[in-house]
Amino acid sequence: MKHFITILLAMYIISLGASAQQSYVPTEENLANRKEFQDMKFGVFIHWGIYSMMADGEWIMNNKNLNYEEYALLAQGFYPSEFSAAKWVSDVKASGAKYICITSRHHDGFSMFGTKQSPYNIVDATPFKRDVIKELAEECHKQDIKLHFYYSLLDWSRDDYFPIGRTGRGVGRTQNGEWETYHSFMLNQLTELLTNYGEIGAIWFDGMWDQPEDFDWKIREIYDHIHAIQPGCLIINNHHLAPIEGEDGQTFEKDLPGQNQSGYSSTATVGQLPLETCETMNRTWGYSITDKDYKSEKELIHYLIKAAGNNANLLMNVGPRPNGEFPDIAIERYNAIGKWLKEYGETIYETRGGFIAPRDWGVTTQKDNKLYVHILNLKDDFLYLPIIDKDIISVKRFIDEKPIQYIPADKGVLINLSEVPDEIDYVLEIDLL
Ligand code: GLC
């Protein structure tokens, strides 16, 4: 009997431990950062690595089954002679973006920062020898841009990324390492990323989809490790699932929250955390010499507006060339977004998705008692808006405050838009009581 009680007690203590592990309580600072993250609305994603030299995207090692040892030799030729962190951050600022998320280590396993955990990094393995992440971090802190680190959980070059995942099977890795070593390697690298580069806005994980769903990544240990070093740092994971305990934001790959046009988001139920959508300007993340299929300025701006109307941030990617420059066309597109945001930023920054859900004609955003109606695609002369239980003080054209006529309709109002010009985004500002 005594024995039995001891077992029960032990089980109780273990279950306490488990449930204690389950409840992550974000700090005040973390909560404030989540709000700030939502307020920023627009970020620039940067995919850059030694793969850029092959000019065919960041998956080339996997796609062409390149031998991992041969691939690693690319590092010896990596010398991005035009790299300038100051220029990058200025280009980002010109786009109106408020944060940068950069690949610190992608699936190929090459670290773009000076790490003591492996010689396979930009400082030790390239003739360039500069820690570009350090230079970027300093410039971001100087120019008041938040810095987020993309970090791949999967690795196509290490023997201890074992069991081998769904991808990178043809690169010739020997499969004899221990997961434990890989896990500690990641923890140690994260310690470096969170101690050597000042305040980090977020760690953005990717690659969890490489292993079967029941695989134990010991992810909570990784999350807790991050929060122990920088409690305010947000954790976002591109796992394509509903949020996991310990995370602070939810990202969607090439889809608005709740949609699944990309095919990645079938199991990504929308949760309660701050939302983000990441998208490419052309079709590839890493630099591609052949992919000229850039979205138009209008399409990109519409995507930003739609993300805001869906209560999400937009993280818009650029794949810098191997010499370290952003492609000209990417700079042009960022400038166009920045120009639009200069005029219309008030209807995007610091807003949340409006109380009228996204429609075929566009979306709404909201800040305090102002509702911004973004008309992106109007086919009719009249726009019906379901504004119920709220008194309207005025309806104006946002850009010049010209009063707009509206008439009460069944459970809402009708707005005459027969004169609406074909603009990128025709914005109405509705002041509510
Ligand atoms: C995918 C790709 C990866 C890219 C990421 C960005 O997960 O594997 O290459 O970095 O999407 O969202």
Helix-strand blueprint:
Blueprint: H1 2-22, H2 28-40, E1 42-46, H3 60-63, H4 68-72, H5 85-94, E2 99-105, H6 122-125, H7 132-142, E3 146-152, H8 179-195, E4 202-206, H9 219-229, E5 234-237, E6 250-253, E7 275-279, H10 297-309, E8 312-318, H11 328-344, E9 352-353, E10 362-367, E11 370-375, E12 382-385, E13 392-397, E14 406-409, E15 412-416, E16 426-432
Parallel strand pairs: 1-2, 1-8, 2-3, 3-4, 4-5, 6-7, 7-8
Antiparallel strand pairs: 9-10, 10-11, 11-16, 12-15, 13-16, 14-15
Bound molecules: alpha-D-glucopyranose.
Residues 47, 58-59, 206, 238, 253, 278, 285 line the site of alpha-D-glucopyranose (GLC).
Q: Would you kindly provide a written description of the structure presented here, covering whatever features stand out?
A:
The protein has helices spanning 2-22, 28-40, 60-63, 68-72, 85-94, 122-125, 132-142, 179-195, 219-229, 297-309, 328-344, and strands at residues 42-46, 99-105, 146-152, 202-206, 234-237, 250-253, 275-279, 312-318, 352-353, 362-367, 370-375, 382-385, 392-397, 406-409, 412-416, 426-432. It has 433 residues and is of the alpha/beta class. Strands 5-4-3-2-1-8-7-6 form an 8-stranded parallel sheet, with helices on both faces. Helix 5 (85-94) packs across helix 7 and helix 8 (179-195) runs parallel beside helix 9. It binds alpha-D-glucopyranose. Alpha-D-glucopyranose (GLC) binds next to loops.
